Amino acid sequence: MNEDQRKAPLWGGRFRKQLDPAAKVFSSSIKYDKRFAKEDIEGSIAHVTMLGECNIIPAGESTLIVSALKQIREEITAGTLQIPDDSEDVHLAIEELLIQRIGSVGGKLHTARSRNDQIALDQRLFLRKELRELQNSIKELQRDLIAKAQANRQIIIPGYTHMQRAQPVLLAHHLLAYVSMLGRDAERIADCLVRINLSPLGAAAFAGTSFPIDRDAVASQLGFSGVVFNSIDAVSDRDYVIEVAGVCSIIMMHLSRFAEELILWSTSEFGFVEMDDCISTGSSIMPQKKNPDIAELIRGRSGRVYGALMNLLTIMKGLPLAYNRDMQCDREPMFEALETTSNALAMMKLIVANITFRSDHLKTVLQEGFLTATEIADYLVRKGETFREAHRITGELTGYCAENNLSFTSLDLEKLRSYSPKFSEDVFDILDPERSIALKVSLGSSSQESVDTQLIYWKNKLSE
Which residues belong to the active site? Predict the structure, then answer.
Protein backbone atom coordinates (compact mmCIF):
# COMPACT_ATOMS: atom_id res chain seq x y z
CA MET A 1 0.00 0.00 0.00
CA ASN A 2 1.55 3.32 -1.07
CA GLU A 3 1.31 6.64 0.75
CA ASP A 4 -1.63 7.89 -1.34
CA GLN A 5 -3.55 4.72 -0.63
CA ARG A 6 -2.93 5.11 3.08
CA LYS A 7 -4.29 8.67 2.95
CA ALA A 8 -7.36 7.71 0.93
CA PRO A 9 -10.65 7.12 2.80
CA LEU A 10 -11.80 3.54 3.27
CA TRP A 11 -14.40 4.08 0.56
CA GLY A 12 -11.94 5.65 -1.89
CA GLY A 13 -11.28 2.75 -4.29
CA ARG A 14 -13.53 4.09 -7.03
CA PHE A 15 -12.07 7.61 -6.91
CA ARG A 16 -9.04 9.05 -8.72
CA LYS A 17 -8.89 12.36 -6.87
CA GLN A 18 -9.09 13.15 -3.22
CA LEU A 19 -12.00 15.16 -1.83
CA ASP A 20 -11.33 18.89 -1.79
CA PRO A 21 -10.05 19.88 1.68
CA ALA A 22 -12.84 22.42 2.13
CA ALA A 23 -15.43 19.86 1.07
CA LYS A 24 -13.90 17.35 3.47
CA VAL A 25 -14.30 19.76 6.37
CA PHE A 26 -17.82 20.66 5.25
CA SER A 27 -18.92 17.04 5.01
CA SER A 28 -17.28 15.78 8.19
CA SER A 29 -19.61 14.80 11.03
CA ILE A 30 -16.89 13.77 13.49
CA LYS A 31 -17.44 16.89 15.60
CA TYR A 32 -20.85 15.54 16.57
CA ASP A 33 -20.91 11.79 16.04
CA LYS A 34 -17.72 11.06 17.96
CA ARG A 35 -20.06 11.11 20.94
CA PHE A 36 -21.35 7.81 19.58
CA ALA A 37 -17.95 6.11 19.91
CA LYS A 38 -18.98 3.73 22.70
CA GLU A 39 -22.29 2.91 21.02
CA ASP A 40 -20.52 2.36 17.70
CA ILE A 41 -18.08 -0.07 19.30
CA GLU A 42 -20.90 -1.82 21.17
CA GLY A 43 -22.72 -2.34 17.89
CA SER A 44 -19.56 -3.47 16.13
CA ILE A 45 -18.82 -6.06 18.82
CA ALA A 46 -22.30 -7.52 18.46
CA HIS A 47 -22.05 -7.46 14.66
CA VAL A 48 -18.66 -9.11 14.37
CA THR A 49 -19.57 -11.69 17.02
CA MET A 50 -22.53 -12.64 14.86
CA LEU A 51 -20.29 -12.80 11.76
CA GLY A 52 -18.13 -15.36 13.53
CA GLU A 53 -21.06 -17.38 14.84
CA CYS A 54 -22.62 -17.50 11.37
CA ASN A 55 -19.25 -18.57 9.83
CA ILE A 56 -19.23 -15.52 7.60
CA ILE A 57 -15.71 -14.79 8.88
CA PRO A 58 -13.47 -17.24 10.78
CA ALA A 59 -14.25 -17.45 14.49
CA GLY A 60 -10.63 -16.70 15.39
CA GLU A 61 -10.71 -13.46 13.40
CA SER A 62 -14.02 -12.49 15.00
CA THR A 63 -12.47 -13.03 18.44
CA LEU A 64 -9.41 -10.96 17.51
CA ILE A 65 -11.53 -8.08 16.25
CA VAL A 66 -13.75 -8.14 19.34
CA SER A 67 -10.72 -8.10 21.63
CA ALA A 68 -9.22 -5.11 19.81
CA LEU A 69 -12.53 -3.23 19.83
CA LYS A 70 -12.88 -3.75 23.58
CA GLN A 71 -9.38 -2.39 24.10
CA ILE A 72 -10.16 0.68 22.01
CA ARG A 73 -13.36 1.20 24.01
CA GLU A 74 -11.48 0.94 27.31
CA GLU A 75 -8.94 3.52 26.17
CA ILE A 76 -11.64 5.91 24.96
CA THR A 77 -13.49 5.52 28.27
CA ALA A 78 -10.28 6.14 30.22
CA GLY A 79 -9.50 9.20 28.11
CA THR A 80 -6.18 7.83 26.89
CA LEU A 81 -7.39 7.56 23.30
CA GLN A 82 -9.03 10.34 21.35
CA ILE A 83 -11.00 9.97 18.13
CA PRO A 84 -8.97 11.88 15.48
CA ASP A 85 -10.60 15.22 14.68
CA ASP A 86 -9.68 14.94 11.00
CA SER A 87 -11.73 11.76 10.57
CA GLU A 88 -14.75 11.80 8.30
CA ASP A 89 -17.01 10.19 10.89
CA VAL A 90 -16.86 8.02 14.00
CA HIS A 91 -17.49 4.78 12.09
CA LEU A 92 -14.51 5.15 9.78
CA ALA A 93 -12.34 6.52 12.60
CA ILE A 94 -12.83 3.41 14.73
CA GLU A 95 -12.39 1.06 11.80
CA GLU A 96 -9.14 2.82 10.87
CA LEU A 97 -7.90 2.52 14.47
CA LEU A 98 -8.80 -1.15 14.39
CA ILE A 99 -6.89 -1.78 11.16
CA GLN A 100 -3.88 0.09 12.50
CA ARG A 101 -3.79 -2.26 15.49
CA ILE A 102 -4.54 -5.68 14.02
CA GLY A 103 -3.86 -5.21 10.33
CA SER A 104 -6.03 -5.94 7.34
CA VAL A 105 -8.20 -8.44 9.23
CA GLY A 106 -9.79 -5.37 10.84
CA GLY A 107 -11.27 -4.59 7.44
CA LYS A 108 -13.56 -7.61 7.83
CA LEU A 109 -15.50 -5.77 10.51
CA HIS A 110 -17.58 -4.01 7.88
CA THR A 111 -18.71 -7.20 6.17
CA ALA A 112 -22.51 -7.23 5.63
CA ARG A 113 -22.82 -3.74 7.06
CA SER A 114 -23.06 -0.12 5.93
CA ARG A 115 -22.54 3.18 7.63
CA ASN A 116 -26.24 3.71 6.95
CA ASP A 117 -27.41 1.00 9.32
CA GLN A 118 -24.47 1.73 11.62
CA ILE A 119 -25.48 5.31 12.36
CA ALA A 120 -29.11 4.34 12.80
CA LEU A 121 -27.99 1.75 15.34
CA ASP A 122 -25.66 4.16 17.15
CA GLN A 123 -28.40 6.75 17.47
CA ARG A 124 -30.90 4.24 18.81
CA LEU A 125 -28.42 2.93 21.38
CA PHE A 126 -27.51 6.48 22.39
CA LEU A 127 -31.11 7.68 22.61
CA ARG A 128 -32.14 4.62 24.59
CA LYS A 129 -29.59 5.51 27.26
CA GLU A 130 -30.27 9.25 27.20
CA LEU A 131 -34.04 8.88 27.42
CA ARG A 132 -33.79 6.59 30.42
CA GLU A 133 -31.66 9.22 32.14
CA LEU A 134 -34.24 11.84 31.18
CA GLN A 135 -36.96 9.67 32.72
CA ASN A 136 -34.99 9.52 35.97
CA SER A 137 -34.57 13.31 35.98
CA ILE A 138 -38.30 13.76 35.51
CA LYS A 139 -39.05 11.42 38.40
CA GLU A 140 -36.60 13.26 40.65
CA LEU A 141 -38.31 16.57 39.88
CA GLN A 142 -41.71 14.98 40.50
CA ARG A 143 -40.54 13.76 43.90
CA ASP A 144 -39.27 17.23 44.80
CA LEU A 145 -42.58 18.82 43.77
CA ILE A 146 -44.45 16.25 45.86
CA ALA A 147 -42.23 17.01 48.85
CA LYS A 148 -42.83 20.74 48.40
CA ALA A 149 -46.57 20.13 48.12
CA GLN A 150 -46.53 17.96 51.26
CA ALA A 151 -44.61 20.58 53.21
CA ASN A 152 -47.11 23.30 52.23
CA ARG A 153 -50.34 21.30 52.47
CA GLN A 154 -52.22 24.01 54.37
CA ILE A 155 -51.35 26.96 52.13
CA ILE A 156 -54.15 28.31 49.94
CA ILE A 157 -53.49 30.42 46.86
CA PRO A 158 -55.75 32.24 44.41
CA GLY A 159 -56.34 30.09 41.34
CA TYR A 160 -56.40 31.93 38.02
CA THR A 161 -58.10 31.69 34.66
CA HIS A 162 -57.37 34.28 31.95
CA MET A 163 -54.79 35.62 34.46
CA GLN A 164 -57.70 36.84 36.60
CA ARG A 165 -58.31 35.63 40.13
CA ALA A 166 -60.89 32.87 39.96
CA GLN A 167 -61.22 30.47 42.92
CA PRO A 168 -59.13 29.51 45.95
CA VAL A 169 -57.10 26.30 45.59
CA LEU A 170 -54.56 24.51 47.71
CA LEU A 171 -51.00 25.28 46.70
CA ALA A 172 -50.32 21.54 46.87
CA HIS A 173 -53.08 20.96 44.32
CA HIS A 174 -51.47 23.49 42.00
CA LEU A 175 -48.03 21.91 42.32
CA LEU A 176 -49.47 18.45 41.74
CA ALA A 177 -50.80 19.66 38.38
CA TYR A 178 -47.16 19.91 37.28
CA VAL A 179 -46.45 16.48 38.72
CA SER A 180 -49.24 15.20 36.48
CA MET A 181 -47.77 16.98 33.44
CA LEU A 182 -44.36 15.50 34.10
CA GLY A 183 -45.98 12.11 34.54
CA ARG A 184 -47.30 12.33 30.99
CA ASP A 185 -43.84 13.36 29.84
CA ALA A 186 -42.39 10.22 31.39
CA GLU A 187 -45.10 8.15 29.71
CA ARG A 188 -44.29 9.75 26.34
CA ILE A 189 -40.63 8.81 26.81
CA ALA A 190 -41.61 5.24 27.64
CA ASP A 191 -43.80 5.11 24.55
CA CYS A 192 -41.01 6.58 22.42
CA LEU A 193 -38.58 3.98 23.75
CA VAL A 194 -40.81 1.20 22.42
CA ARG A 195 -40.19 2.43 18.87
CA ILE A 196 -36.53 3.25 19.46
CA ASN A 197 -35.76 -0.17 20.91
CA LEU A 198 -35.63 -1.92 17.52
CA SER A 199 -32.40 -2.78 15.76
CA PRO A 200 -31.77 -1.49 12.22
CA LEU A 201 -28.48 -3.38 11.92
CA GLY A 202 -28.43 -5.82 9.04
CA ALA A 203 -30.27 -3.53 6.65
CA ALA A 204 -26.83 -2.64 5.25
CA ALA A 205 -26.97 0.28 2.81
CA PHE A 206 -30.75 -0.14 2.38
CA ALA A 207 -31.41 -3.34 0.42
CA GLY A 208 -30.17 -5.89 2.95
CA THR A 209 -27.20 -8.21 2.35
CA SER A 210 -26.44 -11.44 0.53
CA PHE A 211 -24.55 -12.76 3.57
CA PRO A 212 -26.52 -15.17 5.84
CA ILE A 213 -26.52 -12.86 8.85
CA ASP A 214 -28.64 -13.30 11.97
CA ARG A 215 -30.27 -9.94 12.66
CA ASP A 216 -32.28 -11.26 15.58
CA ALA A 217 -29.16 -12.50 17.36
CA VAL A 218 -27.51 -9.08 17.06
CA ALA A 219 -30.68 -7.36 18.26
CA SER A 220 -30.89 -9.67 21.25
CA GLN A 221 -27.24 -9.18 22.18
CA LEU A 222 -27.76 -5.41 22.13
CA GLY A 223 -30.89 -5.59 24.26
CA PHE A 224 -33.35 -4.64 21.55
CA SER A 225 -36.86 -6.05 21.58
CA GLY A 226 -36.72 -6.81 17.85
CA VAL A 227 -35.58 -5.49 14.49
CA VAL A 228 -36.81 -2.82 12.09
CA PHE A 229 -38.37 -5.21 9.61
CA ASN A 230 -38.10 -3.27 6.35
CA SER A 231 -34.47 -2.66 5.37
CA ILE A 232 -35.25 0.56 3.48
CA ASP A 233 -37.16 1.99 6.42
CA ALA A 234 -34.41 0.88 8.80
CA VAL A 235 -31.85 3.27 7.31
CA SER A 236 -34.05 6.09 6.01
CA ASP A 237 -36.21 6.56 9.12
CA ARG A 238 -35.52 9.38 11.55
CA ASP A 239 -38.98 9.44 13.07
CA TYR A 240 -37.48 8.35 16.36
CA VAL A 241 -35.16 11.38 16.47
CA ILE A 242 -38.02 13.72 15.58
CA GLU A 243 -40.17 12.06 18.22
CA VAL A 244 -37.48 12.59 20.85
CA ALA A 245 -37.29 16.27 19.94
CA GLY A 246 -41.08 16.43 20.14
CA VAL A 247 -41.10 14.83 23.58
CA CYS A 248 -38.39 17.22 24.73
CA SER A 249 -40.38 20.16 23.35
CA ILE A 250 -43.41 19.20 25.44
CA ILE A 251 -41.24 18.77 28.54
CA MET A 252 -39.73 22.21 27.96
CA MET A 253 -43.19 23.69 27.43
CA HIS A 254 -44.25 22.33 30.83
CA LEU A 255 -41.10 23.63 32.52
CA SER A 256 -41.52 27.00 30.81
CA ARG A 257 -45.08 27.33 32.07
CA PHE A 258 -43.98 26.61 35.62
CA ALA A 259 -41.03 28.98 35.26
CA GLU A 260 -43.39 31.70 34.04
CA GLU A 261 -45.63 31.27 37.09
CA LEU A 262 -42.69 31.37 39.46
CA ILE A 263 -41.40 34.51 37.76
CA LEU A 264 -44.79 36.18 38.16
CA TRP A 265 -45.22 34.94 41.71
CA SER A 266 -41.82 36.34 42.73
CA THR A 267 -42.72 39.90 41.65
CA SER A 268 -43.72 42.48 44.24
CA GLU A 269 -47.08 42.68 42.47
CA PHE A 270 -47.82 39.06 43.35
CA GLY A 271 -45.46 38.34 46.22
CA PHE A 272 -46.47 34.70 46.51
CA VAL A 273 -42.97 33.23 46.51
CA GLU A 274 -39.45 34.17 47.56
CA MET A 275 -36.57 33.01 45.38
CA ASP A 276 -33.42 32.14 47.30
CA ASP A 277 -30.25 34.06 46.48
CA CYS A 278 -28.67 30.92 45.03
CA ILE A 279 -31.15 30.93 42.13
CA SER A 280 -31.27 34.70 41.60
CA THR A 281 -28.99 37.41 40.23
CA GLY A 282 -28.74 41.17 40.58
CA SER A 283 -28.62 44.18 38.32
CA SER A 284 -25.45 45.88 37.11
CA ILE A 285 -27.04 49.29 37.71
CA MET A 286 -30.02 48.89 40.07
CA PRO A 287 -28.79 47.75 43.50
CA GLN A 288 -32.24 46.71 44.77
CA LYS A 289 -32.92 44.16 42.05
CA LYS A 290 -33.25 40.43 42.64
CA ASN A 291 -33.92 38.77 39.33
CA PRO A 292 -35.28 35.22 38.77
CA ASP A 293 -32.75 34.59 36.02
CA ILE A 294 -32.58 30.80 36.26
CA ALA A 295 -36.35 30.51 35.78
CA GLU A 296 -36.16 33.02 32.92
CA LEU A 297 -33.45 31.01 31.21
CA ILE A 298 -35.54 27.84 31.44
CA ARG A 299 -38.38 29.75 29.84
CA GLY A 300 -36.10 31.17 27.15
CA ARG A 301 -34.32 27.95 26.27
CA SER A 302 -37.55 26.23 25.38
CA GLY A 303 -37.06 28.02 22.06
CA ARG A 304 -33.87 26.07 21.43
CA VAL A 305 -35.71 22.77 21.70
CA TYR A 306 -38.61 23.94 19.55
CA GLY A 307 -36.00 25.04 17.01
CA ALA A 308 -34.38 21.60 17.11
CA LEU A 309 -37.74 19.98 16.37
CA MET A 310 -38.41 22.26 13.40
CA ASN A 311 -34.83 21.71 12.22
CA LEU A 312 -35.32 17.95 12.13
CA LEU A 313 -38.73 18.13 10.48
CA THR A 314 -37.32 20.42 7.80
CA ILE A 315 -34.33 18.14 7.14
CA MET A 316 -36.57 15.14 6.58
CA LYS A 317 -39.57 16.64 4.82
CA GLY A 318 -38.27 16.38 1.23
CA LEU A 319 -36.00 13.34 1.32
CA PRO A 320 -36.69 10.48 -1.08
CA LEU A 321 -35.92 6.95 0.05
CA ALA A 322 -33.51 5.70 1.12
CA TYR A 323 -30.49 7.26 2.88
CA ASN A 324 -29.40 10.81 1.97
CA ARG A 325 -26.45 12.74 3.37
CA ASP A 326 -28.86 15.42 4.60
CA MET A 327 -29.64 13.02 7.43
CA GLN A 328 -26.17 13.62 8.83
CA CYS A 329 -27.51 17.02 9.89
CA ASP A 330 -29.77 15.43 12.50
CA ARG A 331 -27.00 15.10 15.11
CA GLU A 332 -26.73 18.70 16.26
CA PRO A 333 -30.46 19.36 16.84
CA MET A 334 -30.82 15.97 18.50
CA PHE A 335 -28.03 16.77 20.98
CA GLU A 336 -29.41 20.30 21.45
CA ALA A 337 -32.86 19.01 22.38
CA LEU A 338 -31.55 16.40 24.82
CA GLU A 339 -28.94 18.58 26.52
CA THR A 340 -31.18 21.62 26.90
CA THR A 341 -34.02 19.54 28.33
CA SER A 342 -31.74 17.66 30.71
CA ASN A 343 -30.17 20.91 31.97
CA ALA A 344 -33.56 22.58 32.34
CA LEU A 345 -34.87 19.69 34.46
CA ALA A 346 -31.80 19.93 36.69
CA MET A 347 -32.25 23.69 37.09
CA MET A 348 -35.95 23.40 37.85
CA LYS A 349 -35.09 20.85 40.52
CA LEU A 350 -32.70 23.42 42.01
CA ILE A 351 -35.38 26.11 41.90
CA VAL A 352 -38.01 23.94 43.60
CA ALA A 353 -35.58 23.18 46.41
CA ASN A 354 -34.88 26.89 46.96
CA ILE A 355 -38.23 28.66 46.92
CA THR A 356 -40.31 29.69 49.93
CA PHE A 357 -44.01 30.45 49.76
CA ARG A 358 -45.13 33.54 51.65
CA SER A 359 -48.06 32.09 53.57
CA ASP A 360 -48.89 35.23 55.58
CA HIS A 361 -49.08 37.40 52.49
CA LEU A 362 -51.19 34.79 50.71
CA LYS A 363 -53.76 34.89 53.50
CA THR A 364 -54.19 38.60 52.83
CA VAL A 365 -54.39 38.14 49.10
CA LEU A 366 -57.16 35.57 49.46
CA GLN A 367 -59.51 38.25 50.74
CA GLU A 368 -59.29 40.08 47.40
CA GLY A 369 -60.83 39.30 44.04
CA PHE A 370 -64.19 37.75 45.04
CA LEU A 371 -62.70 34.25 44.96
CA THR A 372 -65.76 32.63 46.56
CA ALA A 373 -68.27 33.93 43.99
CA THR A 374 -68.75 30.47 42.51
CA GLU A 375 -69.53 29.11 45.96
CA ILE A 376 -72.29 31.73 46.33
CA ALA A 377 -73.77 30.68 42.99
CA ASP A 378 -73.60 27.01 43.99
CA TYR A 379 -75.17 27.89 47.35
CA LEU A 380 -78.17 29.40 45.57
CA VAL A 381 -78.45 26.33 43.34
CA ARG A 382 -78.62 24.15 46.44
CA LYS A 383 -81.40 26.44 47.66
CA GLY A 384 -83.42 25.74 44.52
CA GLU A 385 -82.28 28.34 41.97
CA THR A 386 -81.26 27.34 38.46
CA PHE A 387 -77.56 27.77 37.90
CA ARG A 388 -78.13 30.47 35.25
CA GLU A 389 -80.24 32.53 37.66
CA ALA A 390 -77.77 31.93 40.49
CA HIS A 391 -74.96 33.05 38.18
CA ARG A 392 -76.84 36.27 37.34
CA ILE A 393 -77.58 37.09 40.97
CA THR A 394 -74.00 36.47 42.06
CA GLY A 395 -72.69 38.54 39.16
CA GLU A 396 -74.86 41.50 40.15
CA LEU A 397 -73.77 41.11 43.76
CA THR A 398 -70.12 41.07 42.68
CA GLY A 399 -70.63 44.18 40.54
CA TYR A 400 -72.15 46.02 43.50
CA CYS A 401 -69.23 45.10 45.74
CA ALA A 402 -66.66 46.09 43.12
CA GLU A 403 -68.30 49.47 42.55
CA ASN A 404 -68.42 50.19 46.27
CA ASN A 405 -65.02 48.74 47.20
CA LEU A 406 -66.62 46.07 49.38
CA SER A 407 -66.01 42.37 49.94
CA PHE A 408 -68.62 39.64 50.23
CA THR A 409 -67.89 39.30 53.93
CA SER A 410 -68.65 42.98 54.55
CA LEU A 411 -72.27 42.50 53.43
CA ASP A 412 -75.02 41.75 55.96
CA LEU A 413 -77.85 39.32 55.43
CA GLU A 414 -80.34 42.08 54.66
CA LYS A 415 -78.25 43.31 51.75
CA LEU A 416 -77.75 39.77 50.46
CA ARG A 417 -81.49 39.05 50.62
CA SER A 418 -82.17 42.17 48.55
CA TYR A 419 -80.59 40.20 45.70
CA SER A 420 -82.28 36.88 46.53
CA PRO A 421 -84.63 35.83 49.32
CA LYS A 422 -82.95 32.43 49.26
CA PHE A 423 -79.96 33.75 51.21
CA SER A 424 -79.89 32.68 54.87
CA GLU A 425 -77.42 32.95 57.75
CA ASP A 426 -75.63 29.83 56.56
CA VAL A 427 -74.36 31.68 53.49
CA PHE A 428 -71.59 33.19 55.64
CA ASP A 429 -70.19 29.71 56.24
CA ILE A 430 -69.12 29.41 52.60
CA LEU A 431 -67.42 32.77 52.16
CA ASP A 432 -64.16 31.71 53.75
CA PRO A 433 -61.57 30.34 51.25
CA GLU A 434 -60.81 27.37 53.50
CA ARG A 435 -64.49 26.48 53.61
CA SER A 436 -64.71 26.87 49.84
CA ILE A 437 -61.97 24.31 49.41
CA ALA A 438 -63.50 21.97 51.97
CA LEU A 439 -66.79 21.95 50.04
CA LYS A 440 -65.17 20.41 46.97
CA VAL A 441 -66.18 16.76 46.70
CA SER A 442 -65.48 15.79 43.07
CA LEU A 443 -62.69 13.37 42.27
CA GLY A 444 -59.38 15.16 41.66
CA SER A 445 -60.57 18.46 43.13
CA SER A 446 -58.71 20.88 45.38
CA SER A 447 -60.09 19.63 48.70
CA GLN A 448 -57.60 18.55 51.33
CA GLU A 449 -58.87 14.98 51.14
CA SER A 450 -58.52 14.89 47.37
CA VAL A 451 -55.03 16.38 47.50
CA ASP A 452 -53.97 13.83 50.12
CA THR A 453 -55.26 11.09 47.82
CA GLN A 454 -53.24 12.55 44.95
CA LEU A 455 -50.12 12.69 47.09
CA ILE A 456 -50.48 9.03 48.02
CA TYR A 457 -51.13 8.09 44.40
CA TRP A 458 -48.00 9.80 43.10
CA LYS A 459 -45.78 8.55 45.90
CA ASN A 460 -46.86 4.99 45.15
CA LYS A 461 -46.53 5.45 41.39
CA LEU A 462 -43.01 6.86 41.64
CA SER A 463 -41.92 4.08 43.96
CA GLU A 464 -42.89 1.40 41.42
Answer: 162, 283
